[in-house]
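Practice problem 4.
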C-alpha cells in the first residue's frame, strides 16, 4: 500500500491510496474518506494495468523525486505453492512511474544536514523527506547525541505551533521520535487541547495511560483525574478510538477504570464500525488484569464489578461481558450472573445474563444449578419475552430439571407452537442427549419445517431404527435434505452399512454420494465397509503422478476454442450446487473453505490444480481433523474454535460444538475437506 504524499504529481492524486492487486496484476486506487472514528475507501479507476499474468507487484513506495517506485516479483506462480523449486527468483524487477513534470534528484545525503535543517524538512511537500529526516534525528538521539541542538529545538517549537495541522502533526511525531521517555504531563495536556482531532488522537497514542508517578502516587492520581475530565469533554470519535487503543495496554486499574466509565458514556459510539469493538477489547482486558490480580491474592473477584460497569454502559456490551464471566465457569462467576439476573432492569439485560450462564455450561451435558438459580428461574420462565423463556428453560434442562425436559418435549412436538421455539427446543434436547429424543426425531421426519434439523440431529444418537426411518422418506427429500441424510448415514458404522446397502440396491443413486462422504465412510476405519466402498466406487484417491496427468489432460481439453463454447449458465449452476456450500464468492456462499473472490481465477492451471488436487497445499486454518467420539460417531471437519471444554467443528453440512470429554481420539488429516 502507498498513500501518495510526494507533492510532485497533480493534486488529484494527493492523499489517494494505491494498492497492489496480486491476482489482478494491476494497481488499484481508492479515495480515502473519513467515516466515524476511521475511514472508508471509495474505489477509483485502476491506476495501472500490467496486461501480464506473471506480474506480481509486492511493494509500492514514494521516492525523493516525488514519483512512485514499485517492486514486481514477476513469476508464473502467484501464490499457494510451498515448493521452493517452483518459484523463480531471477526475474524480479523495479519500476519507477514518473510524472512528466518531475525532475531527478542527485547528490542527496540527508545525513549531512544539521538538526535544524532536518527539522525544517518536516515542512516539505514530499513526505519522503519528512520521514527520513525524523529517522536520522531519532538515530542521532539513540546514539547518545544531544536530544536536539539549540537551533533544532527552536525549529521544533515553531513546528509544533505551525498553522497547518499536518505540519504540527509531523512536529509531534518528531518530538516522540527523539524523546527518551513519554511526553511530559504538562506538554501532553497542552497538546490534547489542539483544535485538530488527529493531533489530539496522536497525543493520546503517545502518552496513553502512562506518566511518571511520584512515590506516593498522588501526582499520578491527580493527572489521571485531569485527563478523565479531558476525555469526558472529548467530542471526536477519532480521538476516542486512540484512547481506547491505549486502554487495552496493562496499567494502573485505578485510572483505567476512570477512563473506561467515561468512554462507555457515548451512546453514539454504538453505531461506529470500530469503537464498539475497541470498547470491548479494553473492558475485557481490564477484567482479565483484575482476574490475574485476584489469582495473586491482591484483590477480590472482579465479576460483579465489571458486570455492573457493562450494565451501565450506553454502548451495548453487557452480553459480551456476561459471556466472558460465564466462560470462567466457576461457582462464583455463575453466582454473579444469577445476581445480575435478579437485579436486571430490562429483558435485554436479562437475556444478556442468560447468555452468560449458557456460556458457563457450554460443552456440558449436565451441570449443577448455580446459587440463587431457583429463586429467579420460575420468574424467568413466565417472562413475556419468548427468547428469555426459551433460554431459561434450556438452562433448566442442563441443570437437570425434569419438568424442564418435559416442557421442552411438549414444545417440540406441538405443531401449533412457534417454529423457532420448536427448533430451539430440539437443539437443547440434542445437547442434553435426551434419551427419549431419538424416537421423536424419527417422527419429525414427516414434518417439512422440522425435517432438516431432525435429520442432522439423528446423527447424535445410536439408534438402530434411524437408517430405516431415513431411507423410508429419502425419495421425498429435497436435494439439501438428501445431502444431510447421507451425511447422517455416514456418521456411524452401523448407519453406513445400511447406506451402502441402499446404494447397492439402487434405492440411493451413486450420484447422491459426493466424494467427501466417501472419504467420511473410509474414516470410519471399518474393513468390511472399505471393501464395499471399493466394489461400488473403486479407488478413492490416486497417486500424485496420476493426478498431475489428469491436470495436464484437462488443460489440453480446455483450450481457448473449447472455453469459447462453454455454457456459463450451466457452470454457475454446478458451482452453486457443488462449490458454494463451502466457498464465498462476491459475498455469497459458505465459510468452510477459503474465500475465492480474490483468487487467481483467470489462470486455468491455477484452477485445475486447486480443483483436481485440493490436498496438494492445505493452509493450516483449513486442515481437516477426524474426531472419533465415545458414542461411536465419527466427525470430520475443520476445528475453528477450541477451549478447555469444547471444540467447534465445521463440517461440509453443519457446525458442531463437541465437548472435549466426548472425544475418544482426534487425528489430523492430510487431505483437504474439498472433494478430489
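Answer key:
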Amino acid at each position: 500500500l502507498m498513500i501518495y504524499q510526494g507533492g510532485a504529481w497533480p493534486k488529484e492524486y494527493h492523499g489517494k491510496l494505491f494498492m497492489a492487486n496480486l491476482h489482478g496484476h494491476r494497481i488499484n486506487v481508492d479515495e480515502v474518506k473519513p467515516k466515524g472514528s476511521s475511514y472508508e475507501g471509495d474505489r477509483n479507476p485502476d491506476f495501472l494495468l500490467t496486461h501480464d499474468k506473471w506480474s506480481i507487484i509486492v511493494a509500492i513506495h514514494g521516492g525523493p523525486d516525488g514519483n512512485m517506485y514499485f517492486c514486481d516479483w514477476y513469476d508464473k506462480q502467484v501464490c499457494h505453492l510451498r515448493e521452493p523449486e517452483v518459484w523463480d527468483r531471477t526475474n524480479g524487477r523495479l519500476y519507477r512511474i514518473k510524472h512528466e513534470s518531475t525532475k531527478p534528484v542527485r547528490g542527496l545525503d540527508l545525513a549531512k544536514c544539521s538538526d535544524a535543517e532536518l527539522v525544517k524538512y518536516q515542512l516539505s511537500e514530499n513526505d519522503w523527506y519528512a520521514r527520513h529526516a525524523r529517522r536520522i534525528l531519532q538515530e542521532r538521539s539513540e546514539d547518545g547525541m544531544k536530544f536536539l541542538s539549540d537551533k533544532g529545538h527552536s525549529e521544533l517549537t515553531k513546528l509544533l505551533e505551525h498553522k497547518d495541522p499536518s505540519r504540527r502533526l509531523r512536529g509531534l511525531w518528531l518530538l516522540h521520535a527523539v524523546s527518551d521517555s513519554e511526553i511530559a504531563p504538562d506538554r501532553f495536556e497542552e497538546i490534547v487541547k489542539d483544535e485538530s482531532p488527529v493531533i489530539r488522537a496522536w497525543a493520546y497514542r503517545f502518552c496513553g495511560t502512562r506518566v511518571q508517578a511520584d512515590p506516593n502516587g498522588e501526582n499520578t492520581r491527580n493527572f489521571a483525574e485531569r485527563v478523565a475530565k479531558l476525555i469526558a469533554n472529548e467530542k471526536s470519535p477519532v480521538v476516542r478510538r486512540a484512547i481506547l487503543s491505549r486502554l487495552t495496554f496493562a496499567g494502573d486499574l485505578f485510572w483505567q477504570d476512570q477512563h473506561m466509565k467515561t468512554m462507555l458514556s457515548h451512546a453514539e459510539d454504538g453505531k461506529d464500525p470500530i469503537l464498539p469493538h475497541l470498547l470491548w477489547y479494553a473492558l475485557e482486558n481490564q477484567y482479565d488484569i483484575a482476574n490475574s490480580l485476584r489469582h495473586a491474592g491482591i484483590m477480590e473477584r472482579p465479576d460483579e464489578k465489571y458486570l455492573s460497569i457493562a450494565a451501565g454502559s450506553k454502548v451495548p456490551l453487557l452480553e459480551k461481558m456476561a459471556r466472558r464471566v460465564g466462560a470462567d465457569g466457576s461457582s462464583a462467576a455463575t453466582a454473579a450472573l444469577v445476581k445480575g439476573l435478579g437485579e436486571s432492569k430490562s429483558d435485554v439485560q436479562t437475556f444478556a445474563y442468560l447468555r452468560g450462564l449458557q456460556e458457563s455450561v457450554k460443552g456440558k451435558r449436565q451441570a449443577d444449578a448455580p446459587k440463587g438459580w431457583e429463586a429467579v428461574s420460575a420468574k424467568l420462565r413466565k417472562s413475556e419475552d419468548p427468547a428469555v423463556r426459551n433460554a431459561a428453560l434450556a438452562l433448566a434442562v442442563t441443570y437437570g430439571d425434569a419438568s424442564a425436559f418435559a416442557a421442552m418435549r411438549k414444545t417440540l412436538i406441538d405443531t401449533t407452537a412457534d417454529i423457532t421455539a420448536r427448533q430451539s427446543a430440539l437443539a437443547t434436547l440434542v445437547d442434553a442427549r435426551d434419551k427419549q429424543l431419538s424416537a421423536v426425531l424419527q417422527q419429525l421426519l414427516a414434518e417439512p419445517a422440522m425435517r432438516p434439523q431432525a435429520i442432522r440431529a439423528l446423527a447424535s444418537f445410536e439408534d438402530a431404527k434411524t437408517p430405516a426411518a431415513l431411507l423410508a422418506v429419502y425419495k421425498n427429500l429435497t436435494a439439501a435434505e438428501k445431502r444431510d441424510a447421507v451425511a447422517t448415514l455416514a456418521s456411524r458404522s452401523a448407519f453406513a452399512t445400511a447406506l451402502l446397502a441402499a446404494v447397492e440396491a439402487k434405492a440411493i443413486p451413486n450420484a447422491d454420494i459426493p466424494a467427501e462422504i466417501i472419504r467420511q465412510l473410509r474414516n470410519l476405519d471399518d474393513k468390511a465397509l472399505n471393501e464395499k466402498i471399493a466394489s461400488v466406487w473403486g479407488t478413492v484417491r490416486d497417486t500424485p503422478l496420476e493426478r498431475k496427468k489428469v491436470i495436464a489432460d484437462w488443460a489440453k481439453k480446455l483450450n481457448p476454442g473449447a472455453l469459447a463454447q462453454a455454457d456459463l449458465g450451466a457452470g454457475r449452476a454446478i458451482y452453486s450446487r457443488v462449490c458454494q456450500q463451502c466457498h464465498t464468492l462476491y459475498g455469497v456462499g459458505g465459510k468452510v473453505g477459503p474465500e475465492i473472490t480474490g483468487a487467481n481465477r483467470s489462470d486455468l492451471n491455477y484452477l485445475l490444480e486447486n480443483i483436481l488436487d485440493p490436498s496438494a497445499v492445505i493452509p493450516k486454518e483449513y486442515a481437516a481433523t477426524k474426531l472419533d467420539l465415545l458414542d461411536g460417531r465419527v466427525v470430520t471437519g475443520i476445528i475453528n474454535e477450541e477451549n478447555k471444554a469444547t471444540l467447534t467443528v465445521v463440517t461440509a453440512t453443519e457446525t458442531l460444538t463437541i465437548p472435549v470429554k466426548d472425544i475418544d481420539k482426534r487425528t489430523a488429516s492430510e487431505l483437504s475437506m474439498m472433494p478430489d
